[in-house]
């Protein structure tokens, strides 16, 4: 029997993998209009349905249902955060396996996640939605500094600001009070958990959660934009047990029954505390780091699960057990960012940087003439280097030095005198 998979959103290489890993698989895509030009191998889809970002859930459902009546979908997939909520609506109506609307709401809407976990006795993080700087100030008065402000629904580290003193309140509120392509829901303020930040890459099947890898994160102390990662993270056996137990409990509490998850934690002196979780593969090339370090291809596991393959955790556990018998290999990534708003004039030294010891790749995302900006969000970063070593610190150092080996010339904006003529 052939499969017809409805892909909600883009997914980069994932729709192509559905066709190549499956047998007689056809794909159709429903996505926002802005995504259509970015879709790969467009001619291989049965159809591409583009809708306005502001189109209602009912419009998305009506379009998908109309196609379903003509050419029934057998499966549905949503590989990124954007429009996962719409995928849940469509799946419920068409009777296809997918995360529930409630699960997606808990995952996307950070205050609701906190409230769900708090109700189950799993999270005691003080938090609130605030409508003004005055309310933000009152939260800080009650719960103290430091705290952190962010959009209630958000991605890409947009609008996140750490608040150390009262002088930071207005700037942080303005940064977090943004509604756009990736952000909505008002300003969420939380107590800032202190400790090492990690992410946990996991894979679930039929309600069972397998911890694949723990990744150490490096973030900008002000904006909390991630500037680097290394995996596997160096954590003690006791910490690994605590992390694994905690993340499994969180995923079960949010009723996540299948698929990849990317859960961000702080390892506090009182144990792991959640920042947020995502029902998708990690970004920032972390799946590639996992594959290089552990020989586990989470992207393929995700696609195979969508196609209906069963008992995937058996193979995953066997691969993880085999990886544990080998000498450890640490994989790192470091990102390039600018300390000022400027214009990129030229890039040189890339090929030499790529030939350095332990370097896997060096990539820059901007060409000459592009604008560079200070580190405000994840998309402010303009390149990365990946490297490996048998020591995590050396892997990070190699990635950073590969970026340092490139020469990037920039043009500064003209100085404007404020002196009277």
From TrEMBL:
GO MF annotation list: ATP binding; ligase activity; metal ion binding
Start and end residues of each ATP-grasp domain: 114-307
UniProt keywords, alphabetically: ATP-binding, Ligase, Nucleotide-binding
The keyword Nucleotide-binding belongs to this UniProt entry's keyword annotation: yes
The keyword Lyase appears for this protein: no
InterPro entries (UniProt xref): ATP-dep_AA_Ligase, ATP-grasp, ATP_grasp_subdomain_1, LAL_C2
Lineage top rank: taxon: Bacteria
PANTHER family: ATP-GRASP ENZYME FSQD (PTHR43585:SF2), FUMIPYRROLE BIOSYNTHESIS PROTEIN C (PTHR43585)
Full protein name: Carboxylate--amine ligase
Organism encoding this protein: Rhodococcus opacus (Nocardia opaca)
